[in-house]
Design brief:
Length: 371
């Protein structure tokens, strides 16, 4: 390999002595040897590379004249907010994939962690995250009081029965104590289970993923969905990838997506999907008056439409749905309108978040956590 540039990773910045040694043995000019030391946040990397004029050097190699000089002011401010804003909020992440044996696996939720940082940076706040194993609340219900020490609670995605009851208890605690709550994927399904049990009087309501014989299967694999699984339109056995959601214009969810400009950017993505006939199932049935966004998914089980009216009549609003061509509504968002912030989604909005374009749901959640 005859490299044009070498980027050197180290605990600290590369000095001239080492640059000179690399220059001799790799036959590369010393100004093409770029230092990239350990840093406090990955979002500082572009600034470090710019400091070494990496972008201009690459353009010069290709003999390309730059069209304009980039303005890094906004990015620098966001990076400063991530690392040194002087203001912070602390979020409890109630989850299950954090400890295996003697090892902690915080990166299991790295996209959620970063989406929180994106939202906080755009609000001028640093976000501190405390990972809590949901099984803790199954073993000691009094431990739920610990959640009062946090500015907000997130229940992210997951699979299976392990730790589920602890998550449900944490969700109920957030609902009853007006603590900002954001549920993602399985987090939305369990929020519906909690509401069905404790507000709709559906004792032992559950998802059939956990209890196939529950009297109130508020979450299950739909019968019509099984046909699509056979046709391999669900990513093998899952609803996988981008799907459109029609939003209720009177909802908090709609306002968040509208304010952050996602209706317009997602409209462009919809135009692209319409050009691919084998991808039209991702849009379902839409009309020109619908307010539509697109988020990515990875799940098998859906909200059971047999129970949506009963649940909504008790105050939990279904604020967005995907309408399939067979007329089935797949619920995408829920919210409690009179709560400080209680929103959950069947999707994974963290996958489309970035530092300069935070996810609307994460932005709204972190904003509600600021006292």
């Amino acid at each position: 390999i005859f490299a044009d540039f070498i980027i050197c990773r180290a605990k600290k910045e590369l000095d001239n002595v080492r640059k000179k040694k690399i220059e001799i043995y790799a036959n590369i000019r010393s100004d093409h040897i770029i230092s990239e030391p350990d840093i406090d946040t990955i979002y500082r990397i572009p600034l470090d590379l710019e400091k070494d004029k990496m972008g201009m050097k690459i353009l010069n190699e290709f003999k390309i004249i730059p069209r304009k000089n980039p303005d890094w002011t906004e990015w620098k401010n966001l990076v400063n907010n991530v690392t040194n804003s002087g203001k912070d909020v602390t979020i409890a992440m109630v989850c299950k994939y954090i400890n295996i044996g003697d090892y902690g696996l915080k990166d299991s939720y790295v996209s959620v962690n970063q989406a929180l940082q994106h939202a906080g940076a755009n609000l001028g706040f640093s976000v501190k995250i405390k990972w809590i194993d949901s099984k803790k609340f199954e073993e000691d219900e009094n431990a739920l009081n610990e959640l009062k020490n946090y500015d907000g609670i997130i229940v992210p995605g997951g699979f299976g029965a392990s730790g589920v009851e602890g998550k449900i208890k944490a969700i109920g605690f957030a609902r009853k104590n007006n603590i900002p709550f954001l549920g993602l994927c399985y987090g939305m399904q369990l929020a519906i289970v909690e509401f069905a049990r404790n507000v709709c009087n559906m004792k032992d309501a559950n998802t059939t993923e956990v209890d196939e014989k529950t009297e109130y299967p508020v979450i299950k694999i739909l019968e019509s969905q099984k046909d699509l699984i056979k046709d391999q339109k669900y990513g093998g056995t899952m609803r996988l990838g981008a799907y459109a959601a029609i939003l209720d214009e009177n909802s908090i969810v709609f306002e968040l997506y509208r304010k952050l400009g996602r209706l317009e950017t997602d409209a462009e993505r919809i135009k692209e999907i319409k050009k691919e006939s084998n991808q039209l199932f991702r849009l379902g049935v839409l009309n020109e008056n619908n307010k539509v966004i697109i988020e990515r998914h990875r799940h098998r089980y859906e909200v059971n439409p047999d129970f949506t009216k009963q649940i909504q009549d008790k105050g939990l609003i279904f604020s967005g749905y995907h309408l399939r061509t067979d007329g089935t509504k797949l619920m995408e968002f829920i919210e409690l309108p009179n709560h400080k912030f209680f929103i959950a989604t069947q999707s994974h909005p963290e996958f489309k978040s970035s530092l300069n374009k935070p996810s609307p749901l994460f932005f709204g959640f972190v904003k509600s956590c600021i006292k």
